[in-house]
Amino acid sequence: MSKRKTDVVSTSIEDINLTNKKIIEIKNNNEQFFMINGKRKTFNILTYGCQMNEHDSEKISGILNSIGYEETEDEKNADLVIFNTCLIRENAELKVFGKLGEIKGLKRSKPDMLVAICGCMMQKPEIREKILKSFSFVDIIFGTNTIHELPDLIYNVDFNNHRSIGIIDNTELIYENMPKTRKYNYKALVNITYGCNNFCSYCVVPYVRGREKSREPQDIINEVTKLAEDGCKEITLLGQNVNSYGNSLENKFTFANLLLELNKIDGIERIRFMTSHPKDLTDDLIRVIKECDKICNHIHLPIQSGSNNILDKMNRKYTKEHYLNIVSKIKSEIPDASITTDIIVGFPGETEEDFKETVDIVKKVEYDSAFTYLYSIREGTKAALMEDQIPDETKHKRFNELLDVLYPITYEKNRLCIGKTYSILVESVSKSSENFLTGRTEHFKLVHFKGSEDLIGQIVNVKITNVKTFHMEGVLEQ
Ligand code: 5AD
Ligand code: SF4
């Protein structure tokens, strides 16, 4: 094992149990509840935001399951409701406050129900203060670095009858072995780095998730090996900037090295990763994606803006020429690759000319799809202090103009798939029709096709017959 600056702490329930009598008391208490009521105490997690949060919710579920709670789909039946919150844009924050209002009513009719809030919003002191002052019905507050403290926090409320708060602002520690109840058995999210060092001027993540830390390669390899043994076919490696994986490790080990190792694991058939930062995407990585059969030919490469002036103000540390150069390398080395992106419209100081450059880059790259966002002021970031904020009306106008260019390109990219056969990992029954299944190609394109439910979790071949902007339709090939 390499020497490292970041210390690893084991947080498996067995490890916590050794030092923590409170967990044993909670477990006993929950067992008693089960004996008396014939059912277990239940929890419901409302997850907002990105895949990082989705995965944190799987850890929260894992911890709660291991101390005797059971998950319920409906918050109205839950003994414990947990908000796992997001702070990336204002509307994410507003959604949480709206839902908290609803839960306040529920708590009035069910005073024994516990309410907990965690996630990125709780890492911001001002928001914690607001919750403490104005939402007195909230029993537990914890953050992104203190998920493992949840049993302690529940104990405080259950046994000492007082509000519990567990927050660590920034930590050098990595918590390994946390129990996880994964949502799916055929695909899994796997953290490779935590935090972010990039400080893009619009973004709140480095302030709430702390400095970047990489997990030990062997810890990641062990987790993925175990997932494969349990039948998992697809993994998605998570990091704010996966390309800088390994920077905090004392022994040099790059993201490309990690992918090479994970590609060797029997049973894993697809490897995805999110998110790549254009400043750190190396030729070596493109070569590894090309050479490794399991790595999906899909690269999510956020551009944010097509104007060098705005990219500089965003502190993105690359130019549009550098970005286009990477894209042309990807296209020539991996002609089959799909490229997707994130774009922010209406960043402070964005002129009509700057915006046209963003539209221009969308046309040049011909993205398979893109997440488009209106710039949202985030208190505490550099961009929030910039004077030339763009009026909402202009932001919306540009946003719509961008979609008018983007959607026909996305549709055209899908249209080129008609008549071709793709392997699809079947994910679920389609939401729109019971007879249809839904899955994704390695390029991350959504495909609906007729088939029976027992194909869920399998990889099948589907021939594309028809396409729309946001999904494709096809027929199963035997
Ligand atoms: N306003 C709008 N979009 C933002 N993003 C991050 N911060 C903001 C903000 N303040 C977008 C970026 C990032 C994605 C996850 O969210 O495009 O890539
Ligand atoms: Fe935010 Fe930039 Fe870090 Fe992504 S790379 S999390 S956009 S600061």
UniProtKB/TrEMBL annotation:
<dbReference type="InterPro" id="IPR002792">
    <property type="entry name" value="TRAM_dom"/>
</dbReference>
<protein>
    <recommendedName>
        <fullName>tRNA-2-methylthio-N(6)-dimethylallyladenosine synthase</fullName>
        <ecNumber>2.8.4.3</ecNumber>
    </recommendedName>
</protein>
<dbReference type="InterPro" id="IPR007197">
    <property type="entry name" value="rSAM"/>
</dbReference>
<dbReference type="InterPro" id="IPR038135">
    <property type="entry name" value="Methylthiotransferase_N_sf"/>
</dbReference>
<dbReference type="InterPro" id="IPR013848">
    <property type="entry name" value="Methylthiotransferase_N"/>
</dbReference>
<comment type="function">
    <text>Catalyzes the methylthiolation of N6-(dimethylallyl)adenosine (i(6)A), leading to the formation of 2-methylthio-N6-(dimethylallyl)adenosine (ms(2)i(6)A) at position 37 in tRNAs that read codons beginning with uridine.</text>
</comment>
<feature type="binding site">
    <location>
        <position position="86"/>
    </location>
    <ligand>
        <name>[4Fe-4S] cluster 1</name>
    </ligand>
</feature>
<feature type="binding site">
    <location>
        <position position="203"/>
    </location>
    <ligand>
        <name>[4Fe-4S] cluster 2</name>
    </ligand>
</feature>
<keyword id="KW-0479">Metal-binding</keyword>
<feature type="binding site">
    <location>
        <position position="200"/>
    </location>
    <ligand>
        <name>[4Fe-4S] cluster 2</name>
    </ligand>
</feature>
<comment type="subunit">
    <text>Monomer.</text>
</comment>
<keyword id="KW-0004">4Fe-4S</keyword>
<feature type="domain" description="Radical SAM core">
    <location>
        <begin position="182"/>
        <end position="412"/>
    </location>
</feature>
<keyword id="KW-0963">Cytoplasm</keyword>
<dbReference type="InterPro" id="IPR005839">
    <property type="entry name" value="Methylthiotransferase"/>
</dbReference>
<feature type="binding site">
    <location>
        <position position="50"/>
    </location>
    <ligand>
        <name>[4Fe-4S] cluster 1</name>
    </ligand>
</feature>
<keyword id="KW-0819">tRNA processing</keyword>
<keyword id="KW-0949">S-adenosyl-L-methionine</keyword>
<keyword id="KW-0808">Transferase</keyword>
<dbReference type="InterPro" id="IPR020612">
    <property type="entry name" value="Methylthiotransferase_CS"/>
</dbReference>
<comment type="similarity">
    <text>Belongs to the methylthiotransferase family. MiaB subfamily.</text>
</comment>
<dbReference type="InterPro" id="IPR058240">
    <property type="entry name" value="rSAM_sf"/>
</dbReference>
<feature type="binding site">
    <location>
        <position position="120"/>
    </location>
    <ligand>
        <name>[4Fe-4S] cluster 1</name>
    </ligand>
</feature>
<dbReference type="InterPro" id="IPR006638">
    <property type="entry name" value="Elp3/MiaA/NifB-like_rSAM"/>
</dbReference>
<feature type="binding site">
    <location>
        <position position="196"/>
    </location>
    <ligand>
        <name>[4Fe-4S] cluster 2</name>
    </ligand>
</feature>
<dbReference type="Pfam" id="PF01938">
    <property type="entry name" value="TRAM"/>
</dbReference>
<feature type="domain" description="TRAM">
    <location>
        <begin position="415"/>
        <end position="478"/>
    </location>
</feature>
<dbReference type="Pfam" id="PF04055">
    <property type="entry name" value="Radical_SAM"/>
</dbReference>
<keyword id="KW-0411">Iron-sulfur</keyword>
<keyword id="KW-0408">Iron</keyword>
<dbReference type="GO" id="GO:0035597">
    <property type="term" value="F:tRNA-2-methylthio-N(6)-dimethylallyladenosine(37) synthase activity"/>
</dbReference>
<dbReference type="InterPro" id="IPR006463">
    <property type="entry name" value="MiaB_methiolase"/>
</dbReference>
<dbReference type="InterPro" id="IPR023404">
    <property type="entry name" value="rSAM_horseshoe"/>
</dbReference>
<feature type="domain" description="MTTase N-terminal">
    <location>
        <begin position="41"/>
        <end position="159"/>
    </location>
</feature>
<dbReference type="Pfam" id="PF00919">
    <property type="entry name" value="UPF0004"/>
</dbReference>
